[in-house]
Design goal:
Elements: H1 53-70, E1 74-76, E2 86-89, E3 101-111, E4 115-122, E5 125-135, E6 137-143, E7 149-155, H2 156-169
Antiparallel strand pairs: 1-2, 2-3, 3-6, 4-5, 6-7
Length: 184
């Protein structure tokens, strides 16, 4: 999860409720955020295609409720203990321009050869910002909450958020970008 410096960090109460600032997140339950070194954060997630429509809706609602409650801009399913290839993000809600996006089985179809480096934080690794180099723009293919295939081009903060969350689906953490190597 990419968060702005100063955002809330640490474990989230598994029973709290929240009114989400973006459409589509109402009704979700705020879940506990898994903290490093919980082994679920290193799991390579299973495809989400096997989830039923009801399971998809419930998972997305819980992910968005947890995301907004924690003050983040992206959250991947393993961060709430679900090892499925699902992520949610909302790059604009903190600036008053909500743009919620849920992705099932996302994959990067193209990466810009241009890259930039920026400090990232992760709610699963509270208080430990890490500079990470990422592609400046990407194109993703994914299924939406209804199972329909979609593609989207992202750049700037949205591209960084998506790449950070995609890393979580493969058990990769921002700590792996440190010079000392994986899990430093």
């Amino acid at each position: 999860m990419v968060v702005c410096p100063g955002a809330a960090s640490g474990a989230i109460s598994p029973t709290a409720s929240v009114t989400a600032p973006a459409a589509g997140a109402a009704g979700g339950t705020v879940r506990a955020i898994m903290l490093h070194p919980d082994p679920v954060l290193r799991a390579v997630c299973a495809p989400a295609a096997a989830l039923t429509a009801a399971q998809r809706r419930a998972l997305v609602a819980d992910l968005f409720a947890t995301l907004y409650h924690a003050g983040g801009r992206g959250l991947a399913a393993p961060q709430i203990g679900v090892t499925r290839r699902v992520l949610v993000m909302d790059a604009g809600w903190k600036a008053g321009a909500p743009s919620p996006l849920a992705m099932f089985d996302p994959r990067i179809m193209w990466r810009s050869p241009l890259a930039d480096e920026a400090e990232e934080m992760c709610l699963s690794i509270p208080g430990r910002p890490v500079r990470v180099r990422r592609a400046a723009a990407i194109r993703l293919a994914f299924a939406d909450a209804d199972g329909a295939g979609r593609e989207i081009a992202l750049d700037g903060a949205a591209a960084r958020i998506a790449q950070h969350e995609l890393d979580h689906l493969d058990g990769v953490l921002i700590l792996d970008a440190l010079p000392a190597g994986p899990g430093a």
